[in-house]
Amino acid sequence: MLRLVRHGLRWRRPYSSIAASDIDHFRTILPPHAILSTLSPSTLNPSELDPYNNDWMGKYRGRATTVLKPKTTQQVSDIVRWCASRDIPIVPQGGNTGLVGGSVPLRDELVISLANMNSVRSFDPVSGILVADAGCILQSLTDYVAPHNHIMPIDLGAKGSCHIGGNVATNAGGLRLLRYGSLHGSVLGLEVVLPDGTILDQLTTLRKDNTGYDLKQLFIGAEGTLGIITAVSILTPPSPQASNNVILALPHFDNVQPLYRAVKRQLSEILSAFEYIDRTAYDLAVKHGQGRALSDEEVDGAACFVLVETSGGRREHDEEKLTDLLSTLRSSPSLWALREGVTEAVSKEGKAYKYDISIPLASFKTVVDTTREHLRSKGLLGEHAVKHVMGYGHVGDGNLHLNIVAAAYTQEIQDALEPFVYELVGKSLVQTWHQKLNTYVRCAASYRGSVSAEHGIGAMKTHALHYSKDDVSIEWMKKIKALFDPKGIMNPGKVLE
Ligand code: FAD
Ligand code: MLT
Ligand code: ZN
User: What does the alpha-carbon distance between residue 121 and residue 169 come to, in Å, rounded to a whole number?
Assistant: First the structure.
């Protein structure tokens, strides 16, 4: 059945819905247990597809009738080739922990889950290069390399569920980016199934390879719109011999910037993370049992907190450096649990509008306060509407997570927040009255930041891309998409409208 799908501005292409005859074909590729479908003949309870149709936040909901769980790259290729011939749209899905609605269908696209592709292909303890299937869970890879005294170059709160393929597809940042840089640097190679089913083998383990265009970079952060990543080759750093962390309660936000400068200067090479949590985010994490709370005395008068981590080669040397810097030293793994637990605490408290933005550190607090006042002026602050407006994030990366926690997702709150937040963050030309010239002038009013520092665009921000990318850039992104995926079957409605 061919139908014209319309979804606002998003979908204009003719796509096919999956039919029983498609399931018959998938049965020639996959064993029965790897096909979950409500299409007849099926005994599957439709609710069994809920985990694949609903995103982590409970904000986006798809209507997929079928989920396929291939085990090999060849199976992925065979499935995609069939879908291309039938114009069946596909959503690649990893651990489904994405925060921008990219990992679930918008309608009834086929979900290809990478969960069964979960083997380590090789690990070289000398170079630290790991080659793994895309569906390996990040924590399991961390556990795999640990006995060899290596760590993964990426760490994030979702590590127990997210896949390395999903991390690469979103170019996830996380808690170690300050130290180990982005995945654009640590990913050495990829194996990708292209939208026509071709297998692109760029799974090199070379540190250096300047033989023409570096195609793999296109798939890092493409959010499944250019192909399905089936394997990743990644450089894992040696485990630090000593790691320390301290949490500091600060009386004013104004203390953060000078402290960051001092910490960078004094800790230099051993500084591995510098994370920010405002008081609202801290209180919420404690309320929902994330990590160990500080004592009442310690938090008395605190406006915000920073978590500083050092990772180095010699414990005595690092502790000495830290002690030199800080008069009170509190070290405990539960400090990280508190920071990492903010996301979960927010989701337990209510429905989160999550803005993941790059702006100058000095404006972190202003953006949170301005948003709160804006919502107040619209009469939207209160237990039954917006309960909390808060900020936390990665100071070292200039990345603030502005979270608005509401009792429910409503159109009214959504309209109050957008485009307000995007105009504040991204480029926006506004008309202002110029007294001397006695006329309106157009001027840049925002921070020229990024509307997505690390979570991606997904379905949430396709309409907001232009706040951070100019027309020429977007035009070339569309050309690249059309080149790889002329039928537009790969994760439609995501990243690009
Ligand atoms: P999914 O959610 O399944 O998919 C995400 C996107 O990638 C989708 O567009 C999907 O289509 C695509 N995709 C997935 N797998 C593939 C594949 N094999 N090939 C092609 N495309 C694919 N993000 C950060 O950057 N930093 C953080 O610190 C951070 N912390 C988080 C903490 C929590 C508690 C949660 C819930 C999320 C957090 N995130 C963070 C969001 C982050 O994007 C994801 O956790 C992670 O990178 C996504 O991996 P996943 O396997 O769950 O991918
Ligand atoms: C984080 O830094 O905790 C993650 O990016 C998740 C979030 O934004 O909540
Ligand atoms: Zn983050």
Answer: 19
| This prediction's pTM | 0.94
**How many domains are there within the chain?**
4
Q: Is residue 282 part of a domain?
A: yes
Give the pLDDT confidence of 184-204 residue by residue, as tens digits.
999 999 999 999 999 999 999
Query: Where is the domain boundary, 235, 263, 285?
Result: 235
| Amino acid type, 91 | V
Range of the domain at 179: 120-235
pLDDT of residue 11: 61
Q: What is the pLDDT of residues 263-320, one digit of tens each?
A: 999 889 899 999 999 999 999 999 999 988 888 988 999 999 999 999 887 777 777 7
- Nearest ligand by distance to the CA of 190: 1
CA angle in degrees (0–180, nearest 5) for 265-271-272: 150
Give the CATH number of the domain where residue 359 resides: 3.30.70.2740
What is the separation of C-alpha 218 from the centre of its chain, rounded to a whole number of angstroms? 17
Most ligand 1 atoms within 8 A of CB, residue of 59, 117, 156, 395 to mutate: 156
